[in-house]
Hints:
Blueprint: H1 9-12, E1 30-32, H2 36-48, E2 54-57, E3 62-65, H3 67-73, H4 75-83, E4 87-88, E5 91-95, H5 101-113, E6 115-117, H6 118-134, H7 138-152, H8 158-167, H9 171-183, H10 185-188, H11 192-200, H12 202-248, H13 270-282, H14 292-307, H15 319-325, H16 331-353
Parallel strand pairs: 2-5
Antiparallel strand pairs: 1-6, 2-3, 4-5
Amino acid sequence: MADKRRISGSEASSPLAPSISGFIRRKNHWRGLSNPSNADLWVRLFNEGYGADVLVVTNGCIIPAHAIILGMASPVLKNMIRQSKGRRGGRRIISISGAPDQAVRAFLRFIYSSCYEEEEINQYALHLLVLSHVFVITSLKKLCVQQLEKRLITVQNVADVLQLACLCDAPRLVLVCHRLIIRNFKSVSATDGWKVMKQSNPKLEREILESLVDVDSERKEKQRKLKERKIYLQLNEAMEALVHICSNGCRTIGPHDKALKGSSCEFPACKGIESLIRHFAACKDRALGGCSQCKRMWQLLELHSRLCSTKDGCNVPLCRHFKEKVLQQNKKDELKWKLLVRKVMEVKTTSLFS
């Protein structure tokens, strides 16, 4: 046991990665996917490197590891170990470069134990995402994606995260980044990450700009539909107020055989319809079609006739007249009125269930 960490003289010149002491005493500092008691043993094996037959060379250190563990976890690592020609003291040598030493160490520790340290995930999430994708460690890749989605993506780094997500085949992360960029495009486009992306990946920039145009078009279309719905809702309220005034009377106007109600009215459009009826009754130009208010009143009366299901005895003036007039209209006008009636009926139906 005393010789379990002895290395050859040629190895002594290369610094070994420092072990992380106190794992058992700091259990609450770690998180993991595996059984805690088993994880203790696996992390200890990784930290001590007992019986290691592989040396993982990073940018700044050498990490002892076990070929069977790495090979079972990753087919890529298994192939690298098999093809490795370099040896040192009987141990095969493989290289994992391009990532910080601590990120590689956290990556290998996860392979052993499925354990991770919160601070390391927060600090090296992007590096671990790339490593887990390259070496096909699915559980770690899923973990990195989840952590990035929850709290690690910012306006400053979203352009970088998006590019890595595309390279690492993480569609959900791509979608999250895409939405964040669209929502905060002005701020994101001012970051260094976005400027670099414009130069290195113009195709991705073009896709985002096209999406931005689509989102803006959808927003305008939504506003247009909301505006249309508001108009149809007002027309429906006007129809209800018109029937109410002509059937039961309201505050200042109504049928001769009904007593006027001086109290407030529950129909929101009643006041406006009252004013319109008074003007219509007194206006000298209503028959000539020269008054805009009278034109509106004529249109409301015709719309009512098309919505009215009463065959005889409707209290609204000219209802029967307009029903007969429908038979004489041309197809173009008839289609316009049918569309208007359908829209008003749709709004009326949805308002009943809202």
